[in-house]
Amino acid sequence: MNNNKNRIAIVGAGIAGIALAILATKQGYQVSLYERDSKVSSMGAGVTLWPNAIFVLQQMGLDKEVKRIGGIPSYMRQFDQYGIQQGELDIEEVNTLSGFPSVTILRRDLMNILARALNDLGVEIHFNCSMTAEDIGKLKQEFHLVVGADGRMNSVVRQTLYPEKVQPCYQGFINIIGISQLEEDVIDNAIHDFRGLGERFGIVPIKAGLCFWAGGWSTHIDKERPLSAWYDEMHQRFMNWPDPVQNVLKFYEKSSLNRIFVHDLDPLPYWHQDNVLIIGDAAHPPLPTSGQGACQALEDVWHLALNLEKKDELDNVLTDFYQQRIVKTSAAQTAGRQLAQRIFTDSSEPQSSVAGISAKQLSEFWMQGLELK
Ligand SMILES: Cc1cc2nc3c(=O)[nH]c(=O)nc-3n(C[C@H](O)[C@H](O)[C@H](O)COP(=O)(O)OP(=O)(O)OC[C@H]3O[C@@H](n4cnc5c(N)ncnc54)[C@H](O)[C@@H]3O)c2cc1C
């Protein structure tokens, strides 16, 4: 271990990496942030930031900007593939119970807000730095703490903690995601969740007709198949689905389309060794059906920053962090898997999950552990 108590290295300038860089810099740490890409990534169409994420963004002083740019949905409505409503969640009620709003936002907008805040603190991101296991070994010697915020699929930092190779697990379905600009008022201020047997199409409004969406269905992985074939299949599968689906498929930005074979990971028994730690998707990637990946990444950052403030022995800080976070992140992973299984694997009639969870239950789960000390 080294003596430089004030230096933190972060690998990966995604949501978790940049957010941690902001909070740690504000605490007086000297932060070095390394990103393999040449710019801040806007991969992924959009995210819904539930009240737990907005709580953290408020602590970072970024909630107002996020609300200004994003949308505030009032309801989440679930329909069958014929457009018949099956259930409804009153998001405003969840917000009131939680004390924070829920915000929908394009990923590129969220990343810009985070990157600007970091830049305002005078911290530069080291781009084009694809870190290797050897690099992590060097960082370990130079820094007080090395944090892997390097994402779900190929986290190098996770590989250094688990040399026996922990592999993300394919969960049997694909998502095609995109962004569409619709004519105003075509879709009201509700998240729309259409479900068929083994198929799902979700549409998330932001504002003024701007929305992001994901079409999913169960399938085997085939990375050789051209993207255009997947996109054609999507059009065919959903061609007779209700009007909002037809609308987003008519008006999407071509460059926003992406195909994702959806993976997650079983909960891990530890997230750190010596002074190397993993957070966010590198540590506990949930399925998108949990709606909580980015939210949990932000919660990690808030808890870790609070623990670092205690100036305790680093091993105690990181052990406490794991113990504070493992139950909630595992619950989000489990919830994501259960919902995915109901939609994409079970051959029974599609079920209503929205109707099965009360606003109170959701708000209690999301706000758990987020008390101001
Ligand atoms: C279709 C879909 C929809 C989703 N919807 C939601 C939602 O509505 N709400 C929600 O909360 N979450 C959602 N999520 C999950 C959310 O996107 C992730 O949980 C979140 O991005 C995790 O943030 P992160 O910072 O941990 O990882 P990432 O955002 O993946 O960032 C990792 C960063 O590390 C960099 N990196 C990787 N390897 C290296 C290396 N070797 N060296 C340097 N840099 C490296 C990458 O380039 C990247 O910039 C969704 C995910 C998907 C796939």
Describe the structure concisely.
The protein is of the alpha/beta class. It has helices spanning 15-26, 51-59, 63-69, 91-98, 107-120, 133-142, 156-161, 227-238, 243-250, 293-309, 314-345, 359-367, and strands at 7-11, 30-34, 46-49, 75-80, 85-90, 103-106, 125-126, 145-148, 169-181, 190-196, 199-205, 210-218, 258-264, 272-273, 276-278. It has a 7-stranded mixed sheet.
Keywords for this structure?
six-stranded mixed sheet; 373 residues; seven-stranded mixed sheet; FAD/NAD(P)-binding domain; alpha/beta; binds flavin-adenine dinucleotide
Helix-strand pattern, N to C?
EHEEHHEEHEHEHEHEEEEHHEEEHHH
Task: Report the CATH superfamily.
Answer: FAD/NAD(P)-binding domain
Bound molecules: flavin-adenine dinucleotide
Number of strands: 15
> Which CATH architecture?
3-Layer(bba) Sandwich
| Cα distance spanning the termini | 31 Å
The outline comes out as globular
Q: Mind describing the biggest β-sheet?
A: 7 strands, mixed
Report mean pLDDT, rounded to a whole number.
Answer: 94
| Secondary structure tally, helices | 12
- Strands of the biggest beta sheet: in what spatial order? 5-4-10-11-12-9-13
Beta content comes to 15-25%
Radius of gyration: 20 Å
Q: Name the CATH class.
A: Alpha Beta
- Whole-number total of structural domains: 1
- Low-confidence spans: pLDDT under 50, at least 5 residues? none
CATH topology: FAD/NAD(P)-binding domain
Structural class: alpha/beta
Helix content: 25-40%
